[in-house]
Write a structure and sequence with these properties.
- The protein is built from ten helices and no strands.
- With 257 residues, the protein is mostly helical.
- The protein has one domain.
- Helix 6 runs antiparallel to helix 7.
- The termini are far apart.
Length: 257
């Protein structure tokens, strides 16, 4: 019964995740603020929230009985390893996905009212992510596999940093006029990183277990996502005349005088 339920969750998780993976690129590449941007942004957000919820259920089933729901890994990995990777780390990544997806939606909706972001659910998600990050790092340190320990500690740092910076913005008093837009980009691109990492890494465990622990599978989505974030942050600063562009403008005006 548990195995059947788990397989149904996998199917739903893949369907929602595939929708999110496709929808992700339309807001990223398309014209910002357009009808398509808003429409597909909503599709992406709803898909990742569903993806994260299914992943939470899958991780809880794994923590309950790892060998029953992962019969293809029996004999390849022990129960501590399976609980760590498909239980605690998947739970952390699922909470990260849900938190970033929800937060990224709120900062746009409440861009003119920062206090409206201080809802119990939004703050609770940030706290849950911090707790999940601590547990993920702790459980990762107990796995007798140096590479996977490093990986679990690494992803927990990402989760803890995301929750911390989110809370800093939520409780900030005088953020810049475009800070909400940068937070929106950070959160939804970060969610995209999570979706693609899951497809490449967790999917590889089922298809090619020997490649699942290869650092490249985890690095490609991260590097791609960080590049997208930096590009859009530069574009935001350029249009607003902030950061480096503000300094260049000031020097230009001083030189003209």
């Amino acid at each position: 019964m548990e195995l059947l339920l788990f397989r149904c969750l996998i199917a739903a998780h893949i369907a929602a995740g595939a929708t999110a993976a496709v929808a992700f690129w339309i807001p990223v590449i398309g014209r910002k603020g357009s009808v398509n941007h808003r429409k597909w942004g909503r599709v992406f957000t709803r898909a990742v929230l569903l993806t994260g919820c299914f992943a939470v259920a899958m991780s809880l089933l794994t923590l309950r009985d790892p060998m029953v729901v992962h019969p293809h890994l029996v004999g390849k990995f022990d129960d501590r390893f399976i609980r760590g990777v498909f239980g605690w780390m998947m739970l952390h990544n699922a909470i990260l996905t849900i938190t970033l997806g929800w937060y990224g939606r709120l900062v746009v909706t409440n861009r003119r009212n920062l206090a409206a972001n201080r809802t119990p659910l939004n703050i609770g998600l940030q706290c849950a992510l911090m707790l999940a990050a601590v547990v993920c790092a702790w459980k990762g340190s107990q796995i007798c596999h140096p590479l996977m320990t490093t990986l679990m500690v690494g992803v927990s740092v990402v989760g803890f940093a995301a929750a911390t910076t989110n809370l800093m913005f939520i409780f900030s008093r005088n953020p810049s006029s475009v800070k909400w837009l940068k937070e929106h980009v950070k959160s939804l691109v970060g969610t995209g990183i999570s979706v693609y990492t899951a497809f490449l890494a967790f999917g590889a465990v089922r298809l090619m277990p020997s490649l699942a622990l290869h650092p490249a599978l985890w690095a490609v989505p991260l590097v791609t996502g960080l590049t997208i974030m930096m590009y859009h942050n530069l574009r935001i600063d350029q249009k607003a005349g902030l950061g480096l562009f503000q300094l260049v403008r000031r020097r230009g005006l001083a030189g003209s005088e």
